[in-house]
TrEMBL record:
Signal peptide: none annotated. One of its GO terms (biological process) is tRNA modification. Pfam families: HIGH_NTase1. It catalyses: cytidine(34) in elongator tRNA(Met) + acetate + ATP = N(4)-acetylcytidine(34) in elongator tRNA(Met) + AMP + diphosphate. Its EC number is 6.3.4.-. ATP binds at residues 7-20, 101, 164, 189-190. One of its GO terms (molecular function) is ATP binding. It is an enzyme of class 6 (ligase). PANTHER family: TRNA(MET) CYTIDINE ACETATE LIGASE (PTHR37825:SF1). This is tRNA(Met) cytidine acetate ligase.
């Protein structure tokens, strides 16, 4: 059986994701689609809208055959680290190819961009440092350095101001640098941009637009046309039980407590908290009544919204720099769910996997897995304190089978 891999968050699974899953299978002529999916905390430093079990069901009901978890260490990392973890896992589980959505839509410009940066690596890094010293944020410095390099070639290269292009580049860069056999391909992102609000004249919307509509309008019905019926049912089931979807505002009281219970020196021990920000975090937490107010009180040119959210994720989960960086590569494949086809693939290919497959966590002692379990526990605690309802935990939940 031939497998194609996709890197996802499914927060939530929408019609664009359904299109991507179908196109991935068709383009690669694969028998099985495998999704490596972030757990409860995501790459932009946010808690997921609903738990990973509901999101796994959405995927399995809509064309994904196997869902494996991207460990917390990678799912909350910057783009390079996120990509390394995800592509390593797809390669380890036997995917011959992986596909990603992009604004570019064709693969050759991605290869051209990779070779351009690789050939001028020293100059590129020097330009980044120059821009950073002027007070420009690190992501913007990367972009400006790259734009200077682009002038050197006539071949088509990608626009690295576009979020999906950026991730796609990092996927390819990770596969090349780690010398993995898995081959990349891309699918044109259609109709809705990453940050776009929902459009009443389309049935395709970004996950960002869908979440924005849910939180601002407090009306789940508003997003029904933008998600498959199975996704809508999972969202409805969650809403009926918990009466709220999860974002930082839901967890603000507990995040605020987590900040204020620490001294400035203790805050600097948490992952991604750079020295100098700790006093600002405490000052803003003392006077902010909401997460939004807090972020506006602490945000600056030096610290982007995403960078701050990643710091806050680690403070909330209590994960330190030392814990986050004790492992640089995935050490296992954590199975979250499978279809009958996915189960057949596991039976056929399992002995060829280059990492151990974990279906139940109770018998496994691994420091990376321990962080995943803690992240689940802290997510569950926030949900339970906010809603007075229990959610599934890692030790209690076997892989979902459809």
């Amino acid at each position: 059986m031939k497998a194609v891999g996709v890197v996802v968050e499914y927060n939530p699974f929408h019609n664009g994701h359904l299109y991507h899953a179908k196109q991935s299978k068709n383009q690669s002529n694969a028998d099985v689609v495998i999704a490596v999916m972030s757990g409860h905390f995501l790459q932009r430093g946010e808690p997921s809208l609903v738990d990973k079990w509901h999101r796994t069901k959405m995927a399995l009901q809509n064309g994904i055959d196997l869902v494996i978890e991207l460990p917390y260490v990678f799912s909350t990392g910057h783009a390079t680290h996120f990509a390394e973890g995800a592509i390593t896992l797809l390669n380890a589980i036997g995917c011959e190819t992986f596909t990603f959505g992009s604004e570019e839509g064709t693969i050759e410009p991605f290869f051209n961009t990779y070779h351009l940066i690789k050939a001028h690596e020293e100059e590129y890094n020097s330009l980044i440092k120059q821009f950073v010293t002027t007070g420009i944020s690190y992501p913007q410095s990367l972009y400006m350095a790259y734009e200077q390099l682009r002038q050197k070639v006539s071949k088509a290269t990608i626009d690295l101001s576009q979020p999906n292009n950026i991730l796609g580049y990092h996927y390819i860069e990770a596969a090349k640098r780690l010398n993995l056999s898995i081959e990349p391909s891309t699918i044109q992102r259609i109709q809705a941009g990453y940050h776009d609000s929902i459009n009443v004249n389309s049935s395709i919307a970004s996950a960002t637009g869908i979440r924005k509509a849910i939180f601002e309008e407090q009306l789940l019905q508003r997003v029904k046309k933008y998600v498959p019926s199975e996704t809508y049912l999972q969202l409805e089931n969650w809403n009926n039980q918990y009466h709220t979807f999860i974002h930082w505002e839901s967890l603000w009281s507990y995040l605020r407590y987590a900040i204020l219970r620490n001294t400035p020196e203790q805050l600097t021990q948490f992952a991604d908290v750079s020295e100098g920000i700790e006093h600002a975090l405490i000052k803003a937490a003392k006077k902010s009544d909401s997460f939004f107010d807090f972020m506006n009180n602490v945000k600056s040119k030096r610290y982007t919204w995403t960078r701050l959210q990643r710091m806050l994720t680690h403070i909330y989960t209590g994960i330190t720099k030392e814990q986050l960086h004790q492992s640089s590569k995935p050490s296992y494949i954590r199975l979250l769910g499978m279809t009958t086809t996915g189960q057949a693939y596991l039976s056929e290919k399992k002995k060829q996997f280059t990492l151990p497959l974990i279906s139940r966590v109770a018998s496994v002692k691994d420091p990376m897995l321990a962080l995943d379990i803690r992240a689940t526990d802290m997510y569950a605690l926030g949900v339970e304190l906010s809603t007075k309802e229990k959610i599934a935990k890692d030790y209690q939940t076997p892989p979902i089978r459809l």
